[in-house]
Design a protein that fits this description.
By secondary structure, the chain is α/β, with parallel strands linked by helices. The chain is built from 13 helices and 32 strands. The strands form six sheets. The chain has an eight-stranded parallel beta barrel with strand order 1-2-3-4-5-6-7-11, surrounded by five helices. Helix 1 packs parallel to helix 2 and helix 1 runs parallel beside helix 8. The chain is globular. The relative contact order is 0.13.
């Protein structure tokens, strides 16, 4: 039986709890420091509150400590890891090999996607080093996932939804070289979302300016079974900076999809957490932020034809809802495809191809009054990227997660009564109470059930009651006290039964490792360097954050499976290649990048020449 885990993002404790309520089997949340989203840190107290709530449902909590570390930070990171272990965190997601030291607590370690695991050799090396889970590169096909699955017994985690980095994660230095803000330090400036000019070697534009490196968002809602069959057990949603409505909607959608997989193969798959989720809405991933969707490279045969980029805009365009018939100041007359609401957000592409938006003050059938005058040509398509009605609904109580209980009421020979309680997590407890030996005047089963069903201030719900007390009278106050005592014992039982995975022991006979690594290994401290030395690996160059490029040096700032030529229909392997010059460059402000095309490996390299020894 394989356990499937839906792993949800949380920028704070409230979002984490919402994710759990809407069906997450695990959540990942940023630590107070050293997380790869600098703006998404959380206090120890808040993380502890998430752990307490999550473990009631056997939901696991993972904390990100996945930036690279400088020498003066390693000890602080280790101390933070100990504190996180103390409060019950299940695992740490890390990138820096300095956190594999003997002074770390025995907490499970997950190799972050920033470790850039693309092949079986890297996966085996990381597992042998002590990682119990490998977060795979987003770019892998199903066949590549299967090959990694066959190479290691470590858990495999893969992204299934959310924003895509154009470069292999952990292998992008565009932000660092252009702004000094390191993506590997949690400060990515999102250079991939900027507009660029596409030029030839002479600087002549060969295509209109566009967002050539901005990818669509991933959506693998329909591919989860394929991924599970290939060996993925944890399905990860991206978005530690996303709002709670996004998390609610996306988690609910993917939770339902995983439930369907379990229902179709109950002898093979089950969910890794406990509890029943009831939703007050119908999930729809089209209704929350996205840049258009792609399932990325799961099927290599689709690479030539599928569109991966969102070159027109990095913003959320939304769903098509209307076409403009006439626009006069604030008043628009539309041909509607869907009804609109007051407060909706609408967008459109103007005559120059730029995406603009406005808010609807009032919607009256096919007539809309905008919040401000708009100049829109007749025939322009309108898109809704804020559905006020849906957003208002998502701001309320949209889900409840509960643990089902079965109770048995039994008379004891000494005159007391006993209540036995079992739950779907495997807990079984019994509590007893004194009770009068009186006979009731009428049937007491329904009144007793009503008292025992009053579980609204807990996470429990009564599924069935086996009442064997017959016509014996039990005061409601006595039953209430007994119920509360039983629930307290049940909570204690869950706390004692819950088991965390311990850190994986490093292999005594590690698999063959690479002989050397360069700046792509992101070695920024002496302890990480010693890790590689202990594995007989030479670090030929430290991380660019600490060993700056030399003036005139060419730095490969991105490696990506996304190929701009292929996206534009000009793959070098096909006759259409001549539509564009062989040498191509991207320009944005003072930043100029050469595009190198590795057709053998079907990869594109984005190269920058360092202007001086210091990063600007």
């Amino acid at each position: 039986m394989t356990e499937l885990e839906l792993l949800a993002p949380a920028k704070n404790a409230a979002t984490a709890i919402a994710a759990i309520d809407h069906g997450a089997d695990a959540v990942y949340i940023g630590a107070p420091a050293f997380g790869a989203r600098a703006a998404a840190g959380n206090s120890i107290a808040d993380i502890a509150a998430v752990v307490d709530y999550a473990h009631r449902f056997n939901v696991r909590v993972f904390v990100t400590l996945n930036t690279i570390l400088y020498d003066n930070e390693v000890n602080d990171a280790v101390a933070l890891a100990r504190e996180l272990y103390r409060i019950g965190v299940d695992a740490l997601i890390v990138q820096d090999m300095a956190l594999l030291g003997d002074d770390m607590p025995p907490i499970a370690l997950h190799a972050s996607t920033q470790c850039d695991t693309r092949d079986p050799e890297k996966a085996r090396f990381l597992a042998d080093a002590g990682f119990s889970r490998i977060v795979l590169a987003r770019e892998l096909s199903l066949d590549e996932i299967r090959a990694i699955r066959e190479s290691t017994d470590a858990d495999l985690e893969a992204f299934v939804h959310g924003a895509l980095c154009v470069s292999y994660s952990g292998d992008c230095y565009a932000s660092l070289l252009a702004t000094g803000r390191s993506a590997n330090r949690g400060e990515c400036a999102q250079m991939c979302r900027l507009p660029y000019r596409l030029t030839d070697a002479s600087g002549k534009d060969v295509m209109p300016e566009a967002h050539y490196l901005s990818l669509r968002d991933m959506n693998r809602l329909d591919r989860l079974r394929d991924m599970a069959d290939a060996g993925i057990t944890s399905f990860k949603i991206e978005g530690r900076l996303k709002d709670v409505a996004y998390v609610k909607n996306t988690v609910a959608a993917y939770s339902r999809a995983l439930d369907a997989i379990v229902a179709s193969a109950p002898d093979r798959y089950r969910r890794s957490s406990a509890g029943q989720v009831s939703l007050a809405f119908t999930p729809d991933t089209d209704k929350t932020f996205n840049r258009g969707f792609t399932d990325y490279f799961l099927n290599p045969a689709e690479r030539r034809t599928c569109r991966i980029a969102s070159t027109a805009t990095p913003k959320w365009v939304g769903q098509p809802v209307a076409t403009v018939r006439r626009a006069e100041g604030k008043k628009l007359t539309l041909s509607l495809e869907q009804p609109l609401n007051n407060g909706d957000g609408l967008g459109y592409f103007d005559r120059n191809g730029r995406f603009n938006g406005f808010r609807v003050n009032r919607a009256e059938g096919s007539t809309v009054i905008a919040a401000a005058p708009v100049d829109i040509a007749p025939g322009t398509r309108l898109y809704r990227n804020r559905d006020k009605e849906f957003d208002d609904m998502m701001a309320g109580d949209t889900a409840r997660r509960t643990i089902a209980l079965t109770m048995t009421l039994t008379p004891l020979p000494d005159g007391r009564i006993a209540i036995s309680v079992a739950d779907t997590r495997g807990n079984e407890i019994t509590a007893t109470a004194e009770a009068p030996l009186e006979t009731a005047r009428g049937d007491q089963r329904e009144p007793r059930k009503r008292v025992l069903s009053k579980l609204g201030d807990t996470v429990y719900t009564l599924e069935s009651l086996d009442d064997r007390l017959g016509d014996r009278f039990i005061p409601a106050s006595a039953l209430t006290a007994l119920r509360r005592r039983a629930i307290a014992l049940l909570d204690s039982s869950q706390l004692m039964r819950y088991r965390r995975e311990q850190r994986r022991r490093p292999a005594e006979n590690a698999t063959e490792a690479p002989r050397s690594v360069g700046y792509e290994a992101n070695v920024a401290n002496r302890r990480a360097a010693r890790f590689y030395k202990d594995h007989n690996i030479t670090v030929s160059r430290k991380a660019l954050e600490v060993e700056r490029p030399r003036a005139g040096e060419e730095i490969r700032v991105m490696t990506t499976r996304y190929c701009l030529r292929r996206e534009l229909g000009c793959c070098l392997r096909h006759e259409s290649a001549t539509k564009l010059p062989r040498e191509l460059f991207l320009l944005s402000g003072n930043n100029r990048y050469r595009l190198d095309f590795d057709c053998r490996n079907c990869e594109m390299h984005v190269v920058r020449v360092a202007e001086n020894a210091e990063i600007s």
